[in-house]
Amino acid sequence: MLHIFFLVVKLLGLILLSLTHRNKVHGKFMSNIGRCDVSEGNWIFDMHYPLYDIKQCPFVEKIFSCQNNGRPDNFYPKFRWQPKGCEISSFDGRQFLSKHRGKDIMFVGDSLSLNQWQSLTCMLHVAVPEANYTVQRNSQLSTFTFPDYNISIMLERNAFLVDLVMEGNDTRVMKLDSLTSSLRWEHMDVLIFDSWHWWLHNGRKQPWDFVEYGKTRVKDIDRLVAYEKALTTWAKWVDSSVDVAKTKVFFQGISPDHDACEGRQGPLKTAGVSPPSEVVLERILNNMSAQVYLLNINRMSQYRADGHPSFYGLGGHNGDDCTHWCLPGVPDTWNLILLSFLV
Ligand SMILES: *[C@@H]1O[C@H](CO)[C@@H](O)[C@H](O)[C@H]1NC(C)=O
Ligand SMILES: *[C@@H]1O[C@H](CO)[C@@H](O)[C@H](O)[C@H]1NC(C)=O
Ligand SMILES: *[C@@H]1O[C@H](CO)[C@@H](O)[C@H](O)[C@H]1NC(C)=O
Ligand SMILES: *[C@@H]1O[C@H](CO)[C@@H](O)[C@H](O)[C@H]1NC(C)=O
Questions:
Q1: With the C-alpha atoms ordered 112, 239, 232, 163, is the resulting torsion angle positive or negative?
Q2: 167 CA distance to ligand 3 centroid (A)?
Q3: Which pLDDT score, from 0 to 100, does residue 16 have?
Q4: Angle of helix 111-127 relative to helix 330-342, nearest 10 degrees?
Q5: Cα(209)–Cα(173) distance, rounded to whole angstroms?
Q6: What confidence tens digit (pLDDT) does each residue in 256-311 have?
Q7: Residues recognised as catalytic
Q8: Which ligand is the nearest neighbour of the Cα of 170?
Q9: Which ligand 3 atom sits nearest the alpha carbon of residue 169?
Q10: Structure pTM?
Q11: What contacts 325, CB < 8 A, 6 or more positions away?
């Protein structure tokens, strides 16, 4: 009798084990560093911040160089993100470069990828100022290298990830099911994607005449639905074609805009809930079989209305920029999180 009881317990155990094992194979995205949930915490004033002076990085674009553009206050870069009850590893650029000798790192996305790419290259250059670097800027692909370390850190401007193609002379078709840029991504060691803000453009700034998915072709479509379909196409590509043991795949969480950011000083007291785009992104990442990483930056960045260029970006008729981020500033923290996953 006892014997049978133990046999049943053992069988149940085996079934449970196979169930939990199945869960493991279905790789939920990772956004905690170890046990550290980086999305909850506070911005703490830290006199050792910022991590660099923008004058040390002549390659950073005007749009992010707020101090050079006359921003009068310099309080905003002096905040460090302190997750609740845990730490993000401190930044060691020299160690990072040594450990990633020979690696190719690529950001793929819109100007918020540009923002993070410029932050990372500046952080690394300032950490190892004696190492030579080269930087080639191009509208489609930009490359920053550290030849001494044989490391390339690239940026591909690609706001939608899926294909936007020309038909005939003047018909622009957004193909939500088609993704061919991936041929350029497959041999990278680290990929950091971002997409969202361009999906919102309408009127004259809308970059397509038709949207196509499956056998359907329409003039326009709900933008969140389009985003979800495009991300699904992207996720299928990662699941089917990327060897995540060789290539680490990251997605930059949704970078928040603020309605009003002029003259802000210091972090806001509260952050709101996740926007619908972030909810969609996390749902897609959670349904992937490949293990990917989310840079969980939405909530922490919501506190930082003070971190945008406002009139100290491009200024002029481009006006009040409450979308991008001054450098040094908020994207440096995004990179601290990225590097914590990579060391
Ligand atoms: C540099 O890295 C590439 C991989 O990105 C490798 O193929 C090449 O052999 C490396 N060159 C040197 C000089 O180490
Ligand atoms: C940096 O590049 C210059 C010119 O190419 C070269 O003369 C110099 O030796 C390099 N420095 C290092 C540390 O490799
Ligand atoms: C495209 O433009 C060329 C030159 O302007 C013209 O000859 C051709 O007919 C156009 N094709 C279509 C499909 O409109
Ligand atoms: C989840 O992934 C499966 C397999 O790739 C797919 O068939 C399904 O539509 C996805 N579900 C959602 C909600 O995205």
A1: positive
A2: 11
A3: 47
A4: 70
A5: 6
A6: 999 989 999 999 999 999 999 999 999 999 999 999 999 999 999 999 999 999 99
A7: 111, 321, 324
A8: 3
A9: 1
A10: 0.90
A11: 64, 115, 255, 301, 304, 307, 308, 309, 331
What's at 298, amino acid-wise? Answer: N
Q: How many domains does the chain have?
A: 1
Ligand 2 center to 134 CA (angstroms):
11
> Is 307 within the bounds of a domain?
yes
**Angle of the 276-286 helix axis to the 223-241 helix axis, nearest 10:** 20
If one residue of 287, 288, 292 were mutated to test the ligand 4 pocket, choosing by the most ligand atoms within 8 A of its CB, it would be 287
Return the SS3 of 288.
Answer: coil
- Tell me the residue range of the domain where 246 lies: 41-342
Does ligand 1 have an atom closer than 6 angstroms to the CB of 168? Answer: no
Whether residue 36 is contained in a domain is answered as: no
In a domain, 281, yes or no: yes
Residue 30 lies in a domain: no
| Ligand 2 contacts CB of residue 148 (under 6 A) | yes
Spatial distance between the Cα atoms of 191 and 185, rounded to a whole number of angstroms: 7
If DSSP codes are grouped into helix, strand and coil, which group holds residue 287?
Answer: coil
What is the 8-class DSSP label of residue 30? B
